[in-house]
Write a structure and sequence with these properties.
The protein is mainly alpha-helical. The protein has 2 domains: 192 residues, no CATH class; 51 residues.
């Protein structure tokens, strides 16, 4: 029976799922997700209180705030099968928050309100709240808690009657979220460089399993002998190990060839030559 592990990504009661090659989910524990949840809720509240309901800007601000939050969750789930998709979605979240930042800055400028500077006392107080919460775990992950708890930490600004105070507080939160997402993106890039993407990891796991099976069967088991005894060459394009494949279409349908284990990122191939000198054949006789 496969080993089981807890999947906590949806925030519901824990359930057991089969262990997967790559971890995914757990986004509710990310500090970036928690901050963007506060930003989304604060933006909806701000627009309800201070932005004309007939204004297109209202819808655009809410959608940008939602995108900043939702793409973190979607990227976290996509991590199971695609590092590149995860990176792309986190970058979309980052871009959405930049769009929202401009909307709040426009609101202040167009109405003649002061925008807090980086060293403004109120801006520093907002940052200190985030700093204290980040210190609970330098990795950016914290114990899951009710989103209302995160709101209460900033309630003195977000519930304020002055729209300038609310807008400036949200701007501070957006800067915090952008910093956290920049760190998250950099970490994902380092992980991709050092460990490769899902396709590479899956191919490597398959090769390792084949080696394990070959060792456990010994020389007495002749099943799929062509796959187990042939020496895997290096890819002529990228140098990675190659795996034996069978063509499924075209005029070479049924013939065998070496394909790069990094496919589809790398499409390098080599001819498969058996010990009897035949090339590309599976060794069987086809009926006319």
């Amino acid at each position: 029976m496969d080993k089981k592990e807890s999947d906590r990504s949806d925030g519901s009661e824990r359930s057991t799922r089969p262990r997967r090659l790559r971890p995914s989910g757990g986004y509710r524990e990310l500090r970036s997700f928690q901050v963007t949840t506060v930003i989304y809720d604060a933006t909806v509240s701000f627009c309800d209180r201070f932005v004309d309901k007939r204004s297109r800007t209202r819808d655009q601000m809410v959608q940008a705030a939602r995108s900043g939050r939702q793409n973190i969750a979607e990227g976290s789930r996509a991590a199971a099968t695609s590092s590149q998709t995860e990176l792309r979605l986190i970058n979309v979240a980052r871009a959405s928050l930049d769009e929202l930042l401009l909307d709040f800055e426009d609101f202040l400028r167009q109405r003649g309100f002061k925008q807090w500077g980086k060293n403004d006392p109120e801006a520093r107080r907002v940052r200190e709240v985030g700093f204290r919460r980040d210190q609970t775990d330098p990795t950016g992950r914290t114990d899951r808690s009710n989103p209302a708890d995160h709101w209460r930490a900033y309630a003195q600004w977000l519930d304020h009657r002055d729209p300038a105070v609310v807008a400036n507080a949200v701007i501070c939160l957006i800067h915090q979220a952008n910093y956290l997402l920049d760190q998250q993106i950099a970490g994902l890039e380092r992980e991709f460089i050092s460990e490769g993407g899902y396709t590479e990891q899956l191919a490597a796991a398959r090769l390792e399993e084949r080696r394990r099976q070959s060792g456990s069967r010994g020389q007495s088991d002749r099943t799929d002998r062509s796959d187990q005894t042939e020496q895997s060459p290096d890819c002529p394009a990228c140098g990675k190990d190659m795996v034996l494949r069978t063509a499924r279409q075209g005029k070479l349908n049924g013939s065998r060839f070496w394909g790069c284990s990094g496919f589809p990122e790398c499409r390098g191939t080599r001819e498969f030559e058996r010990s009897d000198g035949s090339v590309g054949s599976d060794g069987s006789q086809r009926k006319a």
